[in-house]
Amino acid sequence: MTDPVIAAATSQITTCRATGHVPVVRTFFDDPTFTATHVVHDPATMACAIVDSVMDYDPASGRTDHAMAQEIVDYVTAEKLKVEWLLETHVHADHLSAAPWLQERLGGRLGIGESIIRVQDIFGKMFNAGTRFARDGSQFDRLFSDGTRFMLGSLPAIALHVPGHTPADMAYVIGDAAFIGDTLFMPDYGTARADFPGGDARTLYHSIRRLLSLPDETRVFLCHDYKAPGRDEYAWETTIGAERRDNVHVHDGVDEDAFVKMRTARDATLSLPNLIMPSVQVNMRGGHLPEPEDNGISYIKIPVSGS
Ligand SMILES: [Fe+2]
What we know:
Blueprint: H1 4-19, E1 24-30, E2 35-41, E3 47-51, E4 56-58, E5 63-65, H2 67-78, E6 82-87, H3 99-106, E7 109-113, H4 116-126, E8 142-144, E9 149-152, E10 155-161, E11 170-174, E12 177-179, H5 201-212, E13 219-221, E14 237-239, H6 240-246, H7 256-267, H8 276-283
Parallel strand pairs: 3-6, 6-7, 7-8, 12-13
Antiparallel strand pairs: 1-2, 2-3, 4-5, 9-10, 10-11, 11-12, 13-14
Helix pairs in contact: 2-3, 5-7
The site of fe (ii) ion has 5 residues, from loops.
InterPro entries: Metallo-B-lactamas, Mito_Persulfide_Diox, POD-like_MBL-fold, RibonucZ/Hydroxyglut_hydro
GO molecular function, one term: sulfur dioxygenase activity
Keywords: Hydrolase, Metal-binding
């Protein structure tokens, strides 16, 4: 059974490694939300993409801040990079995106997976977002589907649809580097949760097996790290080979049913991320705050329920 998208990504990775035409990746780690933002660039043209940026947010006061995003602006400016893409792997539930703020300062096009429309529908209803909230992905400049090819400067890139954590998760393979969002984490930590609305452990397993069929030497960049027990440093880069061999949840040999059983049992023990309410309401709008009310102020809603 050949998967044409994986075959295309494999040939891209192999060619880029053989010719040495590979991207440079610099990662900025946001400790409060355990998020890794990757700035990936083509050394031949200095074109860059910013993958999964973070806007700081204090939930007690409702104040946003851009210290983390400013570090990215400073780096891009100092290195004389030209931002072509601001890529989101999915609608994050644990941090707010800084993509529009960065786009205003640095340019570039904002991209996410085309199934964002499904996620906007789910969360639009959940937060009773009303008719002013467009559920057609129009907050983004580009909606990627599985197998969409694009360029980063002179580097070839391909988007992969890897649902399971959410219905719209994407991975972006740029040159020989795969930015895989919330699918796999470091081998010693395992995999992403699959219990958010629209998430599904069985679907996640299939997405992960697709990723694991990329070449072993593929460089893999993660969206999060939480330090596995016994490890003191944050880590966000590994390889497909290391994940296949060592991933504690899904190394070679773990079958679908065993994974689903483990993932479902583990998800039942996890609490919701601290920033889920603001994150989802901002990120479903492409990183924009909700439309201000008639007093000019934006509000984040919290649906309240009793037992
Ligand atoms: Fe996530």
